[in-house]
Structure formats: structure tokens, C-alpha cells
Amino acid sequence: MQNTKPGGTSKDELLVQEITDSHAQGMLKKNMAILKTTGEISLFSAKKFKEAMIERIDNGVNIFLVDLSTTSHIDSSGLAAFISTQARLFKESQGKIIIYSVPTHLQKIFELTKLDKLIGITIDLDAAIDKALA
Q1: Which of 60, 81, 110, 128 has the greatest CB tally within 10 Å of its CB?
Q2: Domain limits, the chain
Q3: Distance between CA atoms of 34 and 9, rounded to whole angstroms?
Q4: Where is the STAS domain (predicted)?
């Protein structure tokens, strides 16, 4: 990744990690994955985010629990990545995306765009797992 200036961060900087050492790992089914995003999900990084989910869909995952606690920004391209992935999941396998630990400013974006009706939002991982298993 290229920095915009020494010590600065690039607009395309996004880290997408699969969390495999959670206290809740034993409760997950094989078709579930926990992802954590750090940085911005924007025009410059939405493709990376979507590809991370598609790779896992191709390997049998159809329920994503996404931790947004360290996500600083999401724009329309980031929202589009959520929408298109959710549409594919639902069409192919009745799958779903549940986001949790969402910063207030990001939760407002999901609510204003009514995406909170399409994508589940919970307070924490335990609540996300409960919603996924319901």
C-alpha cells in the first residue's frame, strides 16, 4: 500500500482479518466466519473487502459476523459491497451478514440508508452469534 505522506495513511488502507481465536469460536458452525475490518471501507478499499468475503463464500461460508469496531469510515462503495454480498448470500444459500460493535457514526449511516433492515446489527459478538443461530 502506498502512503499519501510519510507517516500518513493511504485512503485504500483497509485490513480485513478473519478472527479464529475468539472466545466464541466453539459456538460457530462451519458455515460461519468472523471478520474484523480496520480502517476505511471506501471507494479505494471496498473491492478488497468484498473479495475477502467472496473468497470465504466460495469456501462454504454463508454467515458473516463482521466486527466494525475499528472501522473509521464507510462510503457508498463500502455500502455497495455489503449490499451486493448480502444479495449473493441470500440468493445462493439464504445466508446473511451481521455486523457488530458498530461505532455510532457508522450505525447512523446504516440506519439513514435503511440498510439496518437488510443487514443485522448487534451490540457485540455474543449477540451476533445469537442472531446468526436464531
Answers
A1: 128
A2: 14-133
A3: 25
A4: 22-134
